[in-house]
Design goal:
With 235 residues, the protein is of the alpha+beta class. Among the domains are: 88 residues; 58 residues, Head domain of nucleotide exchange factor GrpE (Nucleotide Exchange Factor Grpe, Chain A, domain 2), CATH 2.30.22.10. The chain has five helices and six strands; from the N terminus they run ααααββββββα. Strand 4 and strand 5 form a beta hairpin. The longest helix is centred in the middle third of the chain and has 52 residues. It is rod-shaped and about 150 Å long.
Length: 235
């Protein structure tokens, strides 16, 4: 009887529905990660409050912090690059200035040594003019002069040069119709320069053009050619 009673109850109720358990938790309790939206929690129940993405509240910045950080880094990198370029330029200028000063010191030292040898060069020149510079003495003198010239010594002050007050020291002055302007006609002491530096000015005698006379006019100074001029010969 018990078995027949149970069957009648089951026939009156109909087939039983399977029990479905839906896990609506957004965070997986085993992994601790947020679950992707699925059919189990696609639509929230009426008692659940939907999550809305509200805009920024009052006073909240909408600028992305990562963008501002990158901009600050780029700005600082540009400043450091400019500082490095400026430092390199200053160092290059410093090296050029040091090299220039060093070269000037070397040239100054050489010029000082050469300046002390100028009286010896004057003695050699006077000995040559008197014919005493011969034999081994002449060979030594030629080697000395050649070595000084290779080092940068240059002589100036010769007859026929235009007078230059920056390198010539005039101790005599004459006039003549044979020159067109101030000209060196007598050299009493040769001048020397070492590179761009004048070690000693040349002592010279200067002849200037005689006023009122053309260069090469033979009648200047009261002197006339023998036999008179051309007109007198024709007469």
């Amino acid at each position: 009887m018990t078995h027949s009673y149970d069957e009648s109850e089951n026939q009156g109720r109909g087939p039983e529905e399977p029990v479905v358990v839906r896990d609506r938790r957004r965070v997986d309790p085993q992994t601790g990660q947020v679950r992707p939206p699925g059919p189990a929690h696609a639509a929230p129940e009426p008692d659940e409050t939907p999550v809305e993405h509200a805009g920024p509240s009052l006073g909240e910045s909408i600028v992305d912090d990562s963008v501002s950080v990158v901009s600050d880094v780029e700005k600082e990198l540009a400043e450091r690059t400019a500082d490095l370029q400026r430092l390199q330029a200053e160092y290059a200028n410093y090296r050029k200035r040091v090299e220039r000063d060093r070269e000037a010191v070397v040239i100054g030292a050489k010029a000082t040594v050469v300046n002390d040898l100028l009286p010896l060069l004057d003695d050699l020149e006077r000995a040559e003019q008197h014919g005493d510079l011969t034999g081994a003495f002449k060979a030594v003198g030629d080697k000395l002069i050649s070595g000084l010239q290779r080092a940068g010594l240059e002589s100036f002050g010769a007859e026929g040069e235009p007078f230059d007050p920056s390198v010539h020291e005039a101790v005599q002055h004459n006039t003549s119709p044979d020159v067109a302007g101030p000209t060196v006609t007598v050299v009493m002491r040769r001048g020397y320069r070492f590179g761009d530096r004048v070690l000693r000015a040349a002592l010279v005698g200067v002849t200037d053009h005689e006023p009122g006379a053309a260069p090469g006019d033979p009648s200047v100074g009261g002197e006339r050619p023998l036999g008179g001029g051309v007109d007198e010969q024709q007469q």
